[in-house]
Amino acid sequence: FLVGDTRGIIREAAKKSCFICYKMGASITCCQTGCDRTFHLPCAPDGQCVTQYFGAYRSFCWEHSPQQALQPRPSQDNICTICLDTVEDKVSYKTMGCPACQDARFHRQCIQRLALHAGIGFRCPSCLNQEPFMVEMLTMGIRLSKRPPSWESDQEVGPSDQSHGHCDAAMCFCPGGREHAEADGPWQLWLCSSCTAKGTHRHCSSLGNSTYSWECNTC
User: Which residues form the PHD-type domain (predicted)?
Assistant: First the structure.
């Protein structure tokens, strides 16, 4: 976008309220024709909205989000393949599955974290299928990393008190300063999920508790 276009977008967003938190400044509109629901990106998980991080970067509200078509499983098998905790007895926004083996089930939060750690090696944790599985996860709003798997390097994915150690938000609101970081809460420091060279406090970039990753403006 040109500078003038960006300013126009910001002005328009300032007039729209988020249907999830009801605050103004919602810049994302559902891509479904005829739907005028708008929301903030950090609010998307709380509203069960899906953003596809590829191609045209389309976003959908909860009503028009893509749905998985998987076979139901017996109740005794409803275990997350990743964390081994219980999942719902049917696929939903929070419970997802592998389209290849039709067997693996996992929490959205678990598969999102695995995707960021696995990077280019991301595949089904059960049957190890890669291409159809990856395409399905992208369609369902899972964000992938283009880095090698984290276990092949010394870099950590997600919040970290190592490597880059300060907040790069345009305005840092932390009373302790940009280099202050806590293990949890508003002053938890997150690194960019793509480059890990920039960081932000949760509060400084309005990242809610349901946010799984953050990407800097450069990336």
Answer: 1-65
**Alpha-carbon gap, residue 13 to 20, rounded angstroms:** 15
CA distance 171 to 167: 9
Contact 87, 107 (CB under 8 A): yes
**Tokens standing for 31?**
């891509």
Question: How far is it, in rounded angstroms, from Cα 130 to Cα 139?
Answer: 14
* Domain ranges (residues) in the chain: 3-60, 71-152, 164-218
7-16, 27-36, 87-96, 164-173: segment of lowest average pLDDT: 7-16
Res 161 pLDDT > 70: no
Fold of the 71-152 domain = Herpes Virus-1 (3.30.40)
Closest to 42 in 3D by CA, of 219, 212, 216, 217: 212
Residue 32 carries which side chain, given as an amino acid letter? Q
User: How many CA within 13 A on the CB side of residue 141?
Assistant: 27
Q: Residue 105: which of 77, 69, 138 has the closest Cα?
A: 77
The 3 state secondary structure assigned to 68-81 is CCCCCCCHHHCECC
CATH topology for 164-218? Herpes Virus-1 (3.30.40)
Chain segment 14-46, per-residue pLDDT in tens: 778 999 999 998 889 999 999 999 999 889 999
What is residue 214's predicted lDDT score, i.e. its pLDDT? Answer: 78
**pTM score of the predicted model:** 0.65
